[in-house]
Write a structure and sequence with these properties.
The complex is a heterodimer of chains A (about 400) and B (about 140). Chain A has about 400 residues and is mainly alpha-helical. Chain A is built from 13 helices and two strands; from the N terminus they run αααββαααααααααα. Chain A is about 65% helix and about 0% strand. In chain A, helix 4 runs antiparallel to helix 5 and helix 8 packs antiparallel against helix 10. The radius of gyration of chain A is 24 Å and the shape is globular. The chains are: A mainly alpha (about 400), B mainly alpha (about 140).
């Protein structure tokens, strides 16, 4: 019963070639991440420009594709200012806390490998079989959640150590938002584990090998919750209250300049890529897809993976160009009063369905009963929200009236 | 030197498979730290430094900063941090249960219903006490 999925590369003795493969994978992942961050920033600016009827970056390289590189080089040559009132040690530490977790969480993403038709997703390099991911710890998804929690420290400490007002406000907002939505993010993932039976990413992908993507088997709701919570976790529009320019200048990185500022930017886009990749791994079958030409079979999973991630990245940019920013109370209401109860309720329903299937209960009975119970709970919740809103509105009216009387 | 390498290799051989997986994570994390250090080091070599006292003033929309920055601020959101701890601990209990659903069967399901019910009560309590409201 115990399935501990792990990389076959590391199951045998570790010799020179194994270490070489490990280092090769690290180098490839590093290069892949850096190049894709560069391209994603360009991609976002170009797509948003198109949606705004502008041209966007067009001068550096063909179609402006080297724009990010030019910006990066420019930032290297900018003066680095350390505010007088800043806490020097923490101010310098914060970029590490922000970028290293963002970088590290890419390690668990399987970017290729054929899991279909009984394949175990490994490829052969130098006579060793290995998974196409940097590391495959048995609790991979937990590692991802832990790292995204550490990233909160980066944002929080960056704002706090600046010794300035706007960054402090931005960082407090950011940490409240990120921890609120991380709860919803984790709970929406739990439904996936009901089907995969493991927290290792390669195990989750191989569990979706026969087109039984978790998107469908978990019934769409966890996926929707994951995408909303993920967008909020990334501080992307419409949840970008953290760096709301109209209210907070730049948010937590207002006092950062030069390459330190660029590091926060880099971390943000790395997180965006990783979040898309994790969403693809959890819900959209990861690199699984049809193998069209047998001669180059190893290419197809990688291609499918990148196409799926691209679709996600496009969605994030699309959301940015389409939706207005939420108000802070709306944001907190959405997280605590809608997403967390919904993900918990759906989790219990799916768990009951699975247990029922095992014990041979009639599905025709469980589904309606479960749905009735869920909708009853939703109705109660809705009523409670409405009542709370009415009473708070009422209270506001009363206070206004009493103020009027006072005057 | 050769002895060191030998010791390291034998150390790797006796290491359990579980730990070897984390070794790669560790290497990757090291590369991440290196990346930040190299960027910052390169930046400090390339950038100019013409420091004036004016440049070190905090940004406050162009006017001189008002008041002392390290004054105490009312962090209203700390309640959310407490609630987050509640739900994160909950997730730690839910994940292993979800991964081993079949083993625990109906007994586990009922127990999970009770567990989540109690936590939902906690959330409802915070809601009723108006802690979830943003002021």
């Amino acid at each position: 019963m115990m399935i501990i999925a792990s990389d076959p590369l590391l199951s045998s003795d570790i010799g020179f070639s194994v270490v070489a493969i490990m280092l090769l994978k690290v180098v490839i992942a590093f290069a892949l991440l850096m190049v894709s961050v560069m391209l994603v920033i360009w991609f976002e600016r170009k797509i948003v420009a198109d949606m705004h009827n502008r041209v966007g970056p067009s001068l550096a390289g063909p179609w402006g594709i080297l724009q990010t590189l030019a910006d990066g080089i420019k930032l290297f040559f900018k003066e680095d200012l350390l505010p007088e009132r800043a806490d020097r040690v923490v101010f310098r530490l914060a970029p590490y806390l922000s970028l290293v977790p963002a970088f590290l969480s890419f390690a668990i993403v399987p970017i290729g490998g054929d899991f279909t038709n009984g394949g175990d997703g490994t490829v052969s390099i130098f006579g060793h079989r290995t998974l196409l991911q940097v590391a495959d710890p048995p609790v991979g998804i937990l590692l991802f959640l832990a790292l995204s929690s550490i990233a909160v420290y980066g944002v929080m400490l960056a704002g706090w150590s600046s010794g300035s007002k706007y960054p402090l406000l931005g960082s407090v907002r950011a940490s409240a938002q990120m921890i609120s939505y991380e709860a919803a993010l984790g709970l929406s993932m739990a439904t996936v584990f009901l089907f995969s039976g493991t927290l290792s990413t390669s195990g989750i992908v191989s569990g979706q090998a026969t087109w039984n993507w978790n998107l469908v088997s978990t019934g769409f709701i966890p996926f929707i919750i994951f995408v909303i919570a993920g967008t909020a976790e990334l501080n992307r529009p419409p949840f970008d209250l953290v760096e709301a320019e109209q209210e907070l200048v730049g948010g937590f990185h207002t006092e950062y300049s030069s390459i330190r500022f660029a590091l926060f930017f880099l971390a943000e886009f790395m997180n965006m890529i990783t979040m898309s990749a994790i969403a693809v791994t959890l819900f959209l079958g990861g690199p699984n897809g049809p193998i069209l030409i047998k001669q180059i079979a190893w290419v197809w999973p990688i291609l499918w993976f990148f196409l799926k991630v691209m679709a996600f990245l496009f969605t994030f940019v699309w959301l940015r160009a389409t939706l207005p920013r939420l108000r802070y109370d709306q944001l907190m209401d959405l997280g605590w009063k809608l997403l967390i109860p919904a993900s918990l309720g759906w989790f219990l329903l799916i768990a009951a369905l699975n247990i029922g299937e095992d014990r041979g209960w009639s599905t025709f009975l469980i589904v309606p009963i479960g749905l009735i119970v869920l909708s009853l709970a939703a109705l109660l919740l809705n009523g409670a929200i409405k009542k709370a809103k009415d009473s708070s509105l009422h209270a506001a009216d009363l206070s206004e009236i009493s103020e009027g009387v006072d005057q | 030197m050769a002895l060191l390498i030998y010791q390291r290799e034998t150390g790797l051989k006796t290491m359990s498979e579980f730990l070897r997986n984390w070794l790669t994570v560790l290497i990757f994390g090291g590369v991440g730290i290196l990346l930040v250090s190299v960027f910052l080091g390169l930046g400090s070599l390339l950038r100019p430094s013409r420091d004036t006292p004016q440049k070190r003033i905090n940004y406050e929309s162009g006017v001189d900063p008002q008041g002392d920055m390290w004054s105490q601020a009312n962090i209203r959101y700390y309640v959310f941090a407490l609630m987050f701890v509640l739900f994160d601990v909950e997730a730690v209990f839910i994940f292993p249960w979800a991964a081993r659903l079949e083993v625990y069967g109906l007994f586990g399901l009922v127990e999970m219903f009770i567990f989540i019910f109690i936590l939902a009560l906690g959330l409802l309590y915070a809601w009723r006490k108006r802690l979830l409201r943003w002021v």
